[in-house]
Amino acid sequence: MSDDQLDDPSLAEVLVHGPRPVWVTLREYDPSWPLRFEARAEQLREVLGERATLVEHIGSTAVPGLAAKPTVDIVVGIEDPDDEAAYLPDLEAAGYDLRVREPQHRCLRTGEPDEPVNLHCYPPGHPEVRKYLLFRDRLRSDPADRQLYESAKRVLADREWADMNYYAEAKQPVIDAILARAGWPRDQRWLTAEGGSVG
């Protein structure tokens, strides 16, 4: 998301609570992150049942050895995220707060401040889901790209951003380059709001 998009009045229609200043701090990789994912994944499967056609750990906390914000990112496959009545009340009852509403994408948050989780709901075959998994798997398997991404994040960390989307946008050139090496077409960028580029 570009600065122009962030300043656009229509942003209020996407970011449910509006832009929020955030201080970005990285932590060294913590082996408890996958355990936190597993606990949340089990909860999501119980809450959503067959409506959750996919539950995957994505973002930097899903990459062993990679420093990250201590926020566990999860993508859940929901056949029609725009049909909020079919799943959103159950997620809200489980403590998730809707933060982003975009066509075919909802982002929710829970666990603040101690064990934050971003939950991205997409149709299971959505291109963003494929990108999340491709990017995660590339970082897991390629030490050079993992180090490149961590270095880029360290340059951008330890400061406040007007909104998480500014931080995500600042990482975008490195993400695009890594995705291209992993086989994703360069002209298809990661465009989702708040956490579109996770980790």
TrEMBL record:
Its domain of life reads Bacteria
Matches recorded under InterPro entries: GrpB/CoaE, NT_sf
Q: Which Gene3D superfamilies match?
A: Beta Polymerase, domain 2 (3.30.460.10)
Report the Pfam families cross-referenced here. GrpB
The record's annotation in SUPFAM superfamilies points to: Nucleotidyltransferase (SSF81301)
Task: Identify the PANTHER family for this entry.
Answer: GRPB DOMAIN PROTEIN (AFU_ORTHOLOGUE AFUA_1G01530) (PTHR34822), GRPB FAMILY PROTEIN (PTHR34822:SF1)
Q: What is this protein called?
A: GrpB family protein
Protein's organism? Actinomycetospora endophytica
